[in-house]
Amino acid sequence: MTIAVAVCLAPLVAHAEEGPAFDCAEAEGSVEQLICAEPDLAALDRRMADRFAAAVAVAEGLDTDAEETVRTLRAYQRGWISGRDECWKETDVAGCVRREYLFREAQLVAEFLLEPASNVTEYSCADGSALTVTLFETQLTAMRVEQGDRVGVGGAAGPEAPGTFYLQPMGSFVVGPDGAELVDPYGDAVACEVSG
C-alpha cells in the first residue's frame, strides 16, 4: 500500500521540483503565468528563492544592524519582483524576465558574498581613489566594487556592451584594453588603472 501511495504522489513531487518557488495556482499577471509555463524561467525562480534565502541567512548573521539589513533586503526583493513583473511591457517578455533574474542573482551574490571570488583586482583612479574589484562566476558574471566605505554590486551588461558592469548604486564599471572607468549614475567618468 505504501508503494502505491508513493507512485501516485511521484508526479506531484516532480511537478513541484520543476515549477517555480511560488504557487502557480495563485500566479498573478502575465509574467508569473509565463514563469509557470516556461521550465527555464521556473528553474531561475527556484534558484532565485535559494539565493535570496542564503542572502537572508547571511544578513541575519551580521554582528551589527542585522534586523535592519534583513528588512532592507526583503524590501528590495519586493521591489525587484515588481520590476520583474514590468517585463510584460517588453517585446521579448521571456528574455526580459531571464535578464532580471540573472542580474538580481549577480547582485545578491556580490553583495552577500554567496560564492567564492573568481578574481580580485586593485585599481588606482585619476581622482586619487582606490578600488577593489571582485568578480564572481555566476551565470551573468557578478561584480563587487569597493571604494572606501562605498560598495557597488551588480552584473555584466551582456554581449551588447562587453566589459561593462552595471552597479547599484554606483553606476557602471567599464573594463577596456587600456584600463577601466567608473561611471557614476550621472555619466561622469573617472579613469582607473590596475595597481601594482
From TrEMBL:
<dbReference type="Pfam" id="PF07007">
    <property type="entry name" value="LprI"/>
</dbReference>
<feature type="domain" description="Lysozyme inhibitor LprI-like N-terminal">
    <location>
        <begin position="24"/>
        <end position="94"/>
    </location>
</feature>
<protein>
    <submittedName>
        <fullName>DUF1311 domain-containing protein</fullName>
    </submittedName>
</protein>
<keyword id="KW-0732">Signal</keyword>
<dbReference type="InterPro" id="IPR052755">
    <property type="entry name" value="Lysozyme_Inhibitor_LprI"/>
</dbReference>
<feature type="signal peptide">
    <location>
        <begin position="1"/>
        <end position="16"/>
    </location>
</feature>
<dbReference type="GO" id="GO:0005576">
    <property type="term" value="C:extracellular region"/>
</dbReference>
<dbReference type="InterPro" id="IPR009739">
    <property type="entry name" value="LprI-like_N"/>
</dbReference>
